[in-house]
Specification:
The complex is a heterodimer. Chain A is 34% helix and 11% strand. Chain A is an alpha+beta fold. Chain A has 2 domains: 3-110, Ubiquitin-like (UB roll); 116-244, Orthogonal Bundle (Fumarate Reductase Iron-sulfur Protein, Chain B, domain 2). Chain A is elongated, with a radius of gyration of 20 Å. By secondary structure, chain B is α+β, with helices and mostly antiparallel strands. Chain B folds into 3 domains: 35-262 and 411-470, FAD/NAD(P)-binding domain, CATH 3.50.50.60; 266-408, Flavocytochrome C3, Chain A, domain 1, CATH 3.90.700; 486-610, Methane Monooxygenase Hydroxylase, Chain G, domain 1 (Up-down Bundle), CATH 1.20.58. Chain B contains 17 helices and 19 strands. Chain B has helices spanning 12-22, 43-55, 93-103, 110-130, 162-179, 245-252, 299-306, 323-327, 337-349, 366-372, 374-392, 447-470, 480-498, 505-520, 526-546, 558-582, 606-609; strands spanning 35-39, 58-62, 80-81, 155-156, 183-186, 189-197, 200-208, 214-218, 221-224, 257-258, 263-269, 292-296, 320-321, 361-364, 401-410, 413-414, 427-429, 611-616, 625-630. In chain B, the strands form 5 sheets. Chain B has a 5-stranded parallel beta sheet with strand order 5-2-1-9-17. Chain B has a 5-stranded antiparallel beta sheet with strand order 11-15-14-12-13. The radius of gyration of chain B is 24 Å and the shape is globular. Chain B starts with 11 loop residues before the first helix and ends in a 14-residue tail after the last strand. In chain B, 60% of the residues are buried. Classes of the chains: A alpha+beta, B alpha+beta. Chains A and B meet through α1, α2 and α3 of A and α2, α4, α5, α11 and α12 of B.
């Protein structure tokens, strides 16, 4: 395949950045999208030019490190991570436009690499059950109905990639935050801190500068793990119920 | 030098209890006076950092990824073993211990393995308390499955994403301690070297991957939880960033490297499709519970298949060779990983491989779908089937999967004693980064168990013993040794940047990988190893003369990051070759073609090789020195492994 790659280049956070276009030849349909980027980078390196920087690690669709806004969609045309996208999803002669995640809360570090530290800080605000190592009950002393465990698991499969934020016109982080709030609100282990968790995580989400949710649903439609919008509804319920009966007296 | 493994006296079942009692304790009020560095935030690192912070120590946690949640533990699929015996099928701590020692082909240290089995039950309790959503039965209790050759169902799982859920559990505990101010997190920061003062580990030198700043960090102890070195093969199931640098630099500062040649080749990975391949993808071996492994009975049929003259589904039953079921009737498709991998290689070497490259075998779910329905199979393996389809473009519900072995895990690592301390006092290695528990072959679902055992339940006790002994006086962060090591790190980086050669870093990495895979992969020979040693030496020389590392240090520079890691792989590769050459026997993942039974099974030599090889670095360009830790087996009888 012959392709034209139009990619965002930005030297560092202070640089203004802009698109640069590269022609690329000899791409096979079996390659993953990132392997296509490897080929381009190898060509650039051989010419002594700075390769295009992008985040990636496991290349199995689970670590959440890869990002890339491809032809106007986070992770490209399929509902998957960029590393699991293959070139058979593109056609010969196509121009592919690649940008970083665009959100005020995810500043660009270099080229296609952004800083997603805001997500870590949202989790640090309350995305856990406060138990220390040791001194916990036997695992089978906490029975959980299978349907509840499965539902909690579905919420827990979020990989924290940030596609939801990138997809949202408001750059809202509601889907990400609600996935963790939901998971723990559904499980018996999460009950004790249920109200304060919702309050604290949402406060942190707002403090990071993410936008508001207008229920468009782009986040869920583009989520590589198919995290459901139900989680946002659930988080709203958690938030309102916490607000009227807060433990924070 | 005599290696002191510090195995406590007494019966194996009482060693850990006695040891915990005889270990010194740090006074609760004094814990806040101690600083601990944890490098790596996978299962071992995150669980250790969180647990130590909970106890009151000040922890600094480092990872090269943008967030601790990205560590490659996240990619583990199948499950985690624990001797809970919830299924009433005869499991026990002793049985898990026994299976692990046997599965490791009798090259692991008994005392460590027993402790691992003992604390395995606590891990499950801990993870459930954190809210890890394990699979459950309709009654609400935890579900188990049999996994990777075990004859009891002791594996806990969360669909095909167990590693993800366990890591997110450990990450949540870590995040809580970050919020509490007890852990300071350093993402996108790579450890470049170890700093020793008066022979003891007292800190590290790091590079900030965004700014390039070389920084020093002082602490009372340093924990390396930096994973394995499978990426020495270029193609492996490891994450792209997984590397040996932290462990290797520590090795060059005095930590012995143990059993480097013990590499696990995982039998169920998606086959290589071309030269562009950047990594290999594992399909959880839980698939072997329901999938049947086969190739055509004859070479002619395989050729017809490869040329497209016949489709897999059209090959009649009597033309199929379910070779694992045929050769190992009692274990069948569930033989351990090394046995399954080697047999795949044999049938492909015979010319019976099934994809275009001839290096693939079938893993077929036709019969399981017929027996249990497509929905049942989807519930069990849905995400794995989806992943397979995304990568290959084929639907595994309709046509058999194609699989081939790939490098997956490294049992070798830094030598540690019973306390997980390396030969450098104050320097510890946890999880895959150490060597201690899996012998020459790791059983499925045991890596997650070991990472979390080390981090949650071993290091909080053993580290306290050391810290109590050295006392809480602050470490002098201005000691000249810090500046000296930092300068060496800067010089090395400048050296890499100033070569300005003609070849890219990947060129060297791919070449190294090919040498390692061909001569130090699934099967090794003395002759091949001799050749490989020479080739690696030459490649390393060429690297330092002709590599082109683009850009500068003072920026995010991924080619510099890679060059720095590949330079270390080029040294480690040679040590792996030396180790494989020294070990004139076959055991577990180390298969020397000269040493096999008439049936083609690994032939151990317990008389001469029942030892841990611990390699001592003596100087740049010099041959490393082999030290031996003899292995003594008091509880498990050494037998020829047989899975017939």
């Amino acid at each position: 395949m012959k392709l034209t790659i139009k990619v965002w280049r930005q030297k560092n956070a202070a640089d203004k950045g802009g698109f640069v276009t590269y022609p690329l030849d000899g791409i096979s349909t079996d390659m993953s999208f990132l392997e296509m980027m490897d080929v381009l980078n190898e060509e650039l390196s051989e010419k002594g030019e700075d390769p295009i920087h992008f985040d990636h690690d496991c290349r199995e669709g689970i670590c959440g490190m890869c990002s890339l806004y491809i032809n106007g969609k986070p992770h490209g045309p399929l509902q998957t991570t960029t590393c699991q996208l293959h070139m058979r999803s593109f056609s010969d002669g196509e121009t592919i436009t690649i940008e970083p995640w665009r959100a005020a809360a995810f500043p660009v570090v270099k080229d296609l690499v952004v800083d997603r530290g805001a997500f870590d800080r949202i989790i640090q605000a309350g995305g856990y059950v406060s138990v220390n190592t040791g001194g916990v009950p036997d695992a089978n002393e906490i029975p959980i109905p299978k349907v509840v465990a499965d539902e909690a698991f579905d919420a827990a499969t979020c990989i924290g990639c940030g596609a939801c934020v990138a997809a949202c016109k408001n750059a809202s982080a509601m889907l990400f935050t609600s996935a963790k709030v939901s998971q723990l609100a559904m499980l018996p282990q999460g009950q004790v801190e249920r109200k304060s968790r919702a309050e604290k995580m949402i406060a942190q989400m707002d403090a990071e500068g993410f936008g508001a949710c207008t229920n468009t649903g782009a986040c869920s439609a583009e989520c590589p793990k198919g995290i459901s919008l139900t989680n946002i509804a659930r988080m709203n319920r958690e938030y309102f119920s916490a607000a009227v009966s807060s433990d924070n007296v | 030098m005599i290696l002191d493994s510090k195995i406590p006296a007494g019966p194996v079942a009482e060693k850990w209890t006695n040891h915990k009692f005889s270990s010194k304790l740090v006074n609760p009020a004094n814990k806040r006076k101690y600083d601990v560095i944890v490098v790596g935030t996978g299962l071992a690192g995150a669980s250790a950092a969180a647990s130590l912070a909970e106890l009151g120590y000040n922890v600094k946690a480092f990872c090269f990824q943008d967030s601790p949640r990205r560590a490659h533990s996240i990619a583990a699929q199948g499950g985690i073993n624990a001797a809970k015996n919830y299924q009433n099928d005869g499991d026990s701590v002793f049985r898990l211990f026994y299976d692990t020692v046997k599965g490791g082909d009798y090259r692991a240290r008994e005392a460590n393995v027993y402790r691992l089995a003992e604390v395995s039950v606590n891990i499950i309790d801990q993870c459930v308390a954190q809210g890890v959503p394990f699979a459950r039965e309709y009654g609400g209790l935890l579900a188990n499955r049999s996994f990777g050759g075990a004859q009891v169902s002791r594996t806990f799982y969360a669909r095909g994403q167990t590693g993800q859920q366990l890591l997110l559990g450990a990450y949540s505990a870590l995040s809580r301690q970050v919020a509490n101010g007890k852990v300071k997190l350093y993402p996108r920061t790579e450890m470049m070297d170890l700093v020793k003062i008066d022979g003891e580990a007292k800190g590290i030198v790091t590079r900030n991957l965004i700014t390039g700043a070389i920084e020093t960090h002082a602490a009372h102890a340093v924990l390396l939880c930096t994973g394995g070195y499978g990426n020495v093969f270029f193609l492996s199931t490891n994450a792209m960033g997984s590397n040996v640098t932290a462990a290797w630099r520590a090795h060059k500062r005095g930590a012995f490297f143990a059993n480097p040649c013990y590499t696990q080749i995982h039998p169920t990975c998606i086959p290589v499709s071309g030269d562009h391949q950047s990594k290999l993808t594992l399909m959880s071996e839980s698939l072997r519970n329901d999938g049947r492994v086969w190739v055509p009975r004859t070479v002619e049929m395989a050729e017809k298949l490869r040329s497209g003259g016949i489709k897999a589904n059209d090959i009649p039953e009597d033309e199929r060779d379910y070779y694992l079921e045929r050769k190992y009737p009692s274990f069948g498709n569930l033989v351990p990983r090394d046995v399954a991998s080697r047999n795949a290689k044999y049938v492909c070497d015979e010319g019976r491989g099934v994809n275009e490259t001839g290096e693939a075998v079938f893993l077929d779910f036709r019969d399981a779908i017929k027996r249990d329905s497509e929905d049942t199979i989807r519930a069990r393996y849905g995400n794995l089937f989806d992943m397979y389809q995304q990568i290959t473009g084929e639907n595994p519900y309709q046509v058999p999967m194609m699989i081939y072995p790939a490098v997956h895990y490294t049992m070798g690592g830094l030598w540690v004693d019973y306390n997980l301390m390396t030969t450098v006092p104050g320097l510890y290695a946890l999880g895959e980064a150490n060597f201690s528990d899996h012998g020459a072959n790791r059983l499925g679902a045991s890596a997650l168990m070991q990472g979390l055992a080390d981090g949650y339940f071993v290091i909080p006790y053993t580290l306290g013993d050391y810290l109590a002994k050295i006392g809480p006086a602050p470490v002098d962060a201005d000691h000249p040794e810090f500046a000296k090591v930092a300068k060496e790190v800067e010089e090395r980086i400048q050296k890499l940047l100033s070569i300005n050669g003609s070849k890219t870093v990947d060129y060297f990495h791919k070449k190294l990988g090919k040498i390692m895979w061909n001569e130090c992969g699934m099967a090794r020979t003395a002759e091949g190893l001799e050749k490989a040693k020479k080739e690696i030496k030459e490649l390393r020389e060429e690297f330092w003369k002709d590599v082109n590392v683009i850009g500068s240090n003072e920026e995010l520079n991924q080619s510099l990051e890679k060059a720095n890691r590949v330079a270390d792989f080029l040294e480690l590769g040679e040590l792996m070759i030396d180790d494989a050459y020294d070990r004139n026997e076959s055991c577990g993942g180390h298969f020397r073609e000269e040493y096999q039974t008439p049936e083609g099974e690994a032939l151990r030599d317990d008389e001469n090789y029942a030892y841990v090889s611990a390699w001592r670095f003596v100087g740049e360009g010099e041959e490393e020195v082999l030290e031996k830790e003899p292995l003594e087996f008091e509880n498990v009888k050494l037998t020829q492994r047989s899975y017939k």
